[in-house]
Amino acid sequence: MDYDGQLDHALQRLHDEGRYRTFIDIERQKGQFPHASWTQPDGTQKPITVWCGNDYLGMGQNPIVLKAMHEAIDATGAGSGGTRNISGTTVYHKRLEAELADLHRKEAALLFTSAYIANDATLSTLPKLFPGLIIYSDALNHASMIEGVRRNGGAKRIFRHNDLDHLRELLAADDADAPKVIAFESIYSMDGDFGPIEAICDLADEFGALTYIDEVHAVGMYGPRGAGVAERDGLMGRIDIINGTLAKAYGVMGGYIAASEKMCDAIRSYAPGFIFTTSLPPAVAAGAAASVAFLKTAENLRADHQAQAKALKLRLKGLGLPIIDHGSHIVPVMVGNPVHTKMLSDMLLQDHGIYVQPINFPTVPRGTERLRFTPSPVHGPGEIDALVNAMDQLWSHCALNRAESAG
Fold this sequence. Notes:
The chain is of the alpha/beta class and about 400 residues long. Helices cover about 40% and strands about 15% of the residues. It has helices at about 5-15, 65-75, 90-105, 115-130, 145-150, 165-175, 195-205, 230, 260-270, 270-275, 280-295, 300-320, 340-350, 380-395; strands spanning about 25-30, 35-40, 45-50, 110, 135-140, 155-160, 180-185, 185-190, 195, 210-215, 240-245, 255-260, 330-335, 355, 360, 370-375. Strands 4-12-11-10-7-5-6 form a seven-stranded mixed β-sheet, with helices on both faces. Helix 2 runs antiparallel to helix 11, helix 3 (about 90-105) runs parallel beside helix 11 and helix 4 (about 115-130) packs parallel to helix 5 (about 145-150). The radius of gyration is 22 Å and the shape is globular. The termini are far apart.
């Protein structure tokens, strides 16, 4: 076997399809977000504006968060020293879990090193707790949810995206006495559409199912205290397990679930992804706790964030660009070709100092390749003007179609 040759073939296939992903060397500048420096291939630096980051509210630069992290690292040092069972539980971890439980009005919360691990570990563990469990999973769920469902060894049913009739058919076809859980998202990040939370909760009640919601693209940004879309819609009490992240709107790192005390205790006790993973560094936990606490009262930031997203959508629609608009903060501009998408991304960066990554297969289906912009409260009128003008020029330069919005 020519192993190197096989690797060359696999990588060349990505290049040929326009799907090879390149890491861009970005240096964030404290207090200057969304501005950053790009180290170009020749080693020179160029100022850029980041338009595709998940630090949606700029909390990674917030002085309150940085102060909490500095204090924690000065007090405890760098790492946690082990898993939560082996010296890796500190006052910072417990404080963060308390903040998260309070945020979601749940009895408890459980920290993981990422929301990916939280999804994977929890969903793959549930069948151990409920023998015979059937998981009903939305077709467009995050890869971490798909992986957790795939690995759990139990029965699974995939319902068409946001298709309540299909979900009902699947639920009705199974044993009424079998334990069930419906897994879905509040905001699907590629199109920016919302999950039908209330209707899914109604079905869960009717068929005796648990509900599991992924709120990673909503926590911090929706609801009176930033607990997500379920809070905004007054539905948190109907959700059994809430998954969230600390690496997007909260600007730090980590993931979690919030649920009943018994549920969190059972996942803590049975999930290998939790048991055998070193816990978050105390400084990270401290920064995340400060961010969560701060955003519980920062309704102005959430309002500014939504206003910026609406403004950008209106400007891009005015140019006739094919954007998808489901009313969330996600701004996808459809291109539909992986080579063209990569070309536009490269030209925006090189010629206009605007950084946005191309979104290609397998993240989205083939033929729906796009640029996905994530405006924040600190993207001002000047940054929006520069982006809109650049998109207008490049769309004409590349002779791409202008059409009504795609959604």
